Amino acid sequence: MALGFGLMVEIVPSILSADFARLAEEIAGVEKAGVRMLHLDVMDGRFVPNITIGPPVVACIRKATRLKLDVHLMIVEPERYIDAFVEAGADLVSVHQETCPHLERTLRQIQGRGAKAGVVLNPATPLCLLEHVLEAADYVLLMSVNPGFGGQKFIPQVLGKIRALHEKRHELGLDLPIEVDGGVNQDNLAEIVRAGANWIVAGSSVFHSRDAAATVAQMRRIATAATAVRV
Predict the structure, then answer these.
(1) pTM, full prediction
(2) What is the pLDDT of residues 116-148, one digit of tens each?
(3) Cβ atoms within 10 A of the Cβ of 151, count?
(4) pLDDT surpasses 60 at 231
(5) Number of domains into which the chain is organized
(6) 5 inside domain
(7) Residues marked as catalytic
(8) Domain assignment of residue 189, given as a range
(9) What's the CATH code of the domain at 217?
(10) CB within 8 Å of 59: residues ≥ 6 apart
(11) For every residue of 124-186, which 3-state class applies, written as one string?
């Protein structure tokens, strides 16, 4: 499945911060701003201290939009649920290194179902643990907050991690998008993009603003300007 995004900078609204009573309307609002992906956080109350959505909600969202659905599994034993989420409409599925003892196998399982496979690292998990699976993954998601809740502050030490992964993919010659999730807003977006991030997950900064579409457009302008001066 070709997404056609590659290493372009994408603003990816996270529905964790949306108003679920008006979810279809909230999604339609960011669609008007030209986004191409939605980020869906799945939490189980075990790996992270919160519970969110499951395959039935993903299936409902799939009916409401043609946007690509980027499903982030913050759950233990994700391999047990991958089929259900892909069947519900997930286009991309990411799993945490911290929950996958057989990580390469899990990534191949996702790809075998026709979805793009991402691997996620918590802020304190070192990049070296991905050394032998980077060529198996379709993208890497770096958490820039400790997962479990929206509205947290960006952890600045993650910038160095983004730079290191950007250098590593260049060294290996990989077209491996770097996704960043947590605490991203208009004030720190440029620095995150300059560090090498491609897919920018934004929840509270988008859905808690007065005009989500206008906020997405503003973030896209900031990100586009920042790509010219990456460091």
Answers:
(1) 0.95
(2) 999 999 999 999 999 999 999 999 999 999 988
(3) 13
(4) no
(5) 1
(6) no
(7) 41, 181
(8) 10-227
(9) 3.20.20.70
(10) 88, 89
(11) CCCHHHHCCCCCCCCEEEEECCCCCCCCCCCCCCHHHHHHHHHHHHHHHCCCCCEEEECCCCC
Q: Which two tokens stand for residue 204?
A: 């509270």
Task: Using CA atoms of 146, 166, 66, 114 in order, give the dihedral in degrees to the nearest 10.
Answer: -100
Measuring CA to CA, which residue among 213, 218, 135 is closest to residue 184? 218
Structure tokens at 15: 């529905």
Measure the CA angle with vertex 28, ends 87 and 73; round to 5°.
35
The tokens for 198 are 């491609």
CA-based nearest residue to 156, from 178, 119, 184, 196: 184
Angstrom distances, CA of residue 218 to CA of 22, 71, 181: 23, 25, 18
Residue 210 one-letter amino acid: R
The token pair that represents 165 in the structure block: 């992964």
Q: Choose among 211, 221, 157: nearest CA to 183.
A: 157
